[in-house]
């Protein structure tokens, strides 16, 4: 498949001399969609990587300058095989109503995906995995499955009572019990943000999806506590609040009606769980598990950390700050921020850099001691954070984490948790999102791209 993508891109470049964008591997591009081969991984990082392709420049809609193609890694062959096995298993788990289910907290032992009820949170995770692996509701090998999942989620949102804080009447699911009672709407918001970004404004379902997205945003904001967390904590409530915060960020990125104060409050809550000066972590709402808290802090400080760094670099180029200036509140003021905003951005920068280190430490990665759905979610948050922050260390994270996941994949192609969230459907969807994160580089970078203030 990579050869098939590579050859057309070379011919296209040679005939038109147009620099093109990379989108999603395996997706069938629209007629007017430019295509660019994803360069292979650095051969020092993976055994079966190949040399990078030459001449490709990656851009986002927010960035005027191209992205070094070495930032993007091709998927190693062993990971491709693992992805395909997982995907083959996952699509067979879909229920007749289009949804996917994780099962109840009371029956964590049920591993048959067809012996549980569909729920929005699990369906949203599967839908995002299908999109990240190259499908839309109209195109791709699993377009039909994604369309059914999309219809299920839209119907759930549209049927929710006015003034509700969640999109389902289900209670006691594994995900709700462990993450929080309102996790379904947080994950549905993430899904819908991804959906509207991919289908575009001319799509027949765009307005329906955008209305549903705004409905979900309103629910998240209504359920927000005064400290920025989300009501209805589960066992590891910090993860529910983290996904709600990143959902607001994603929704704002695609033009949804997000209140800036609500987003700032949600981010501040996550940053407050980690003290960059001492390295101490607040784990009271993270089930006492450092991994859950630091991955959440990393995820929700990534975009601001990147903005702080890029604003300082821009100020250096313009001669407004010293060439050797550090990213701190004083430098950020010199770069054009108000004192209050400079302090906020400096804190985000410090939290991100300290938390990302802790979140990848061996003793922290162990989480609860073995992998449950919460561990998989934490790995996903860390990886996406590194990409959003335009942090080259994501490549080392990718090599280590994909090896970990490939090694623990079940013989039937699924993954399952060994505590708390044991659902093979939920864990398989989350694992596929991690393995295929390199398919989503441009989309994730756009979330963290700096919109420079005048």
What does this structure look like?
The chain has 454 residues and is an all-alpha fold. It has 2 domains: 1-74, no CATH class; 76-448, Glycosyltransferase. It has helices spanning 2-16, 77-91, 120-132, 143-159, 174-178, 183-199, 206-222, 237-253, 260-272, 290-299, 302-317, 329-334, 339-359, 362-365, 373-388, 394-408, 424-435, 441-448. Helix 8 packs antiparallel against helix 9 (260-272). The longest helix has 21 residues, at 339-359. The protein is globular, with a radius of gyration of 21 Å. Residues 1-65 have low confidence and may be disordered.
Break the fold down into its secondary structure elements and pairings.
Elements: H1 2-16, H2 77-91, H3 120-132, H4 143-159, H5 174-178, H6 183-199, H7 206-222, H8 237-253, H9 260-272, H10 290-299, H11 302-317, H12 329-334, H13 339-359, H14 362-365, H15 373-388, H16 394-408, H17 424-435, H18 441-448
Helix pairs in contact: 2-17, 3-4, 3-6, 3-17, 6-7, 6-8, 7-8, 8-9, 8-10, 9-10, 10-13, 10-15, 11-13, 15-16, 15-17
Quick take:
By secondary structure, the protein is mainly α.
List the total number of helices: 18
- Roughly how many Å is the radius of gyration? 21 Å
- Spatial separation of the terminal alpha carbons: 44 Å
The tally of domains stands at 2
For the record, the CATH class of the largest domain is Mainly Alpha
Biggest sheet, open or closed, and with what strands and sense?
none
Unreliable stretches covering 5 or more consecutive residues: 1-65
Strand-residue proportion: under 5%
The name CATH uses for the topology of the largest domain is Glycosyltransferase
**Overall 3D form:** globular
